[in-house]
Each structure stands twice: as structure tokens, then as C-alpha cells.
Amino acid sequence: MSKLIKEIYSIDQNIQTDMSDSPLDHWYDRLINKNVNEIDLEDVSRMLGQHVLIDLGIEKAIEILSEDPLAGEMYDGHLLKLLYTIETNNFRDLSQLKRILQTIKSSFSQFEWADEEDQEEYAVLLELFLKKVGL
């Protein structure tokens, strides 16, 4: 998709109510001037954490998790944890999320973990997420 995010969502950068100079504002300006294919893990993590363009953030998070279930900006599994914090009514298609969670669960034993504690925390998060979506 070659359209910029600000074009897709009809965002007018000239109508900014708060013109602060914070790092979050700078990130947002960079984000809306990207196309969808340019969004990276950092962008998705912030989108989910800040509840900004949440539908797009969810879509990209599922895409990233399908390639790397341990993806995370801060630590292994951070992206899954951020996605878990989003209310299920924000998901357009829960079946896609359910599929990726089931795939992660079925391949869980093949992941390489830094330590046993990380593995246990991820396993608990995964089980909580599965319950949250009714699996």
C-alpha cells in the first residue's frame, strides 16, 4: 500500500490541538507520514501502548507475531503482552487472533528461551490470552 497513513485515515497534520515538542509527538508525526508497509515493531508497540490507530496496530502486531512469536521491543514476548492488554472488542476479526495464538501454543516447545523464568511468564500470558479469547 503506497498511501501514507495520514491519507488513509484523513489525518490533517495542520489541525494539531497540542503542539508540544514531546518524543511521543515526534513519533506520531513520523508514523502518520509512513505507509503501512513501513511500520515496524517500535511503531506497533507504541500504537498498542498509546491506543493510537489501534486497528492498524492490532493488524500489524498479528502480522509480526506470525513471523516471530517472541517479538518484543523491550523483552521477548513484549508484543504479545501489549496485544493482550487490548480489549477484545477492538479486534475486527478474533478468528485471526485465535489462529495465531493456537499456532504459538502448538510451537511453544520449539522456542529458545534466555531462562526458565521467561519461558514460564510467557506460558502464563499465553494461557491467559487463550482464555480471554475463549479458547
Overall morphology: globular
Give helix % range.
Answer: 55-70%
Please summarize the sheet with the most strands: none
Pairing-aware structural class of the strands and helices?
A: mainly alpha
Distance between the termini: 33 Å
Mean pLDDT: 92
User: Which percent band covers the strand fraction?
Assistant: under 5%
* Alpha-carbon Rg, integer: 16 Å
Unreliable sequence segments: none
Q: Could you give the count of β-strands?
A: 0
> What sequence of helices (H) and strands (E) makes up the elements?
HHHHHHH
Number of helices: 7
Question: Could you write a compact summary of the structure shown?
Answer:
This protein is mostly helical and 135 residues long. It has helices spanning 5-8, 23-32, 41-50, 54-67, 78-84, 94-107, 116-132.
Description:
- The protein has 7 helices and no strands.
- It is mostly helical and 135 residues long.
- The protein is globular.
- The termini are far apart.
Key features?
globular, 135 residues, 7 helices, mainly alpha
Blueprint of the fold:
Blueprint: H1 5-8, H2 23-32, H3 41-50, H4 54-67, H5 78-84, H6 94-107, H7 116-132
Helix pairs in contact: 3-4, 3-5, 6-7
